[in-house]
Prior knowledge:
With 119 residues, the protein is mostly helical. It has helices spanning 9-22, 26-34, 51-74, 80-100, 105-108. It folds into 2 domains: 7-43, no CATH class; 51-102. InterPro entries: MobC.
Amino acid sequence: MWVKIRATEEQRSRWHAVAEARGVSLSELVRQGLDGVRAVRRRHQPRRVDPELLRELARIGNNLNQLARWANREKRGADAVAVVARLIALDRELAQLRRAHEVPTAEAGPGAVSEDAPC
């Protein structure tokens, strides 16, 4: 069932802000307010992560750590081109992984990665 009420833009904005701060929808805030129940914050449900994605990210992280150790140990300018080339390759791998595991915005929900977010 739908219930319509008249409100100013200021009231509507304020109510939405209160609902968001409490972690509930505006409808839930109104229902609980009218029933005399305090709106309870929803618990965040952790998203399931693909184990293959975790392995790939660990592999890339390992490569980055090896490059950082090498750069700190060697500090030679001549090999900097090789390091930059490898970093570019890792950046491409990360972008590819991100595209492969991106959640479409309609299904995304809070905390999801948008297409224009940096890698």
